Amino acid sequence: MKSLINLLSIKNFTVFFILFWLGLFILIPGILVVLVSFFSSSPNEFYEAVFSLESYSKLTDPLYLKVFQNSLYLALCTTLVTFIIGYLYALAVVNCRKKWHALLLILVILPFWTNSLVRIYGIKNLLGANGFINQFLKSIGLIDKPLQILYTDTAVIIGMVSILLPYMILPIYSSLQKIDSRLIEAAKDLGAGPFKRFTKVTFPLSFSGVIAGITLVFLPSMGLFYISDLLGGPKSLLIGSVIRQEFLFTRNWPLGAALSIGMIAILMFTMWLVNKFKIGRVE
């Protein structure tokens, strides 16, 4: 009885600590951001505590709409490329001998041991005019002058894929590993070819991992401003870059907060669509 009481007390303390942590570092800052978004901007202060919808009215400005559109485009391209590479890699790991699984998964997790900013600087050197790619293409005679890869949308997508790829591979691998091999063998015995076995058995049964991977990649890819700052040009702005500029440089906190709320609204709508699609698949 005493051990049960101790267990319950530990459980209650853990729940309380988690709720306290979430409230202190997520709920309260979120409420403050919402409040600031309804305040007026001030030339001398971060904001003026006077109710105003001026910041939200600026969200319909063509400039900010263009940034939102570009952010969605880059996020969707990143998610698509990451899904194709991640699914093929996870499928290859599952189908290879089990003794190689641990090594191949370590290769996926290995980049987490290095700071992502350091990796982006490495990619910047790789894609530069004097980087390895251009030097290699020159050495084999495919190009005469360096290709313009750096400071383009392509460079931003490459950078985001390199950072977010593990978040796609791991959930897909987990879902593929749980598939009963007898189901695939049964489909094979019934005359289904490799493509039909994949489309009718493997992919539908791994769909939950696909949804999890898409969510983990798409949501952060709209806010990785340091990647677009280092690898992209002026036309490759992410909404995260604009929010950082409004808070740190322009010092227009109400507009930065309103842009943050707009990005959160887009992400929540995307999650709602993904969840609805997932439910539809399960049914």
UniProtKB/TrEMBL annotation:
Domain ABC transmembrane type-1: 68-274
Subcellular locations according to the entry: Cell membrane
Bilayer-crossing regions: 12-39, 72-90, 102-122, 154-173, 205-227, 253-274
Top-level lineage group: Bacteria
Its membrane topology: Multi-pass membrane protein
Keyword Amino-acid biosynthesis: no
Keywords assigned by UniProt, alphabetized: Cell membrane, Membrane, Transmembrane, Transmembrane helix, Transport
PROSITE patterns (UniProt xref): ABC_TM1
Record bears the keyword rRNA-binding: no
InterPro entries: MetI-like, MetI-like_sf
GO cellular component, one term: plasma membrane
Pfam family, one: BPD_transp_1
A biological-process GO annotation: transmembrane transport
SUPFAM superfamilies attached to this UniProt entry: MetI-like (SSF161098)
UniProt family annotation: Belongs to the binding-protein-dependent transport system permease family. CysTW subfamily.
Protein name in UniProt: Spermidine/putrescine ABC transporter permease
Naturally occurring in which organism (per UniProt): Psittacicella hinzii
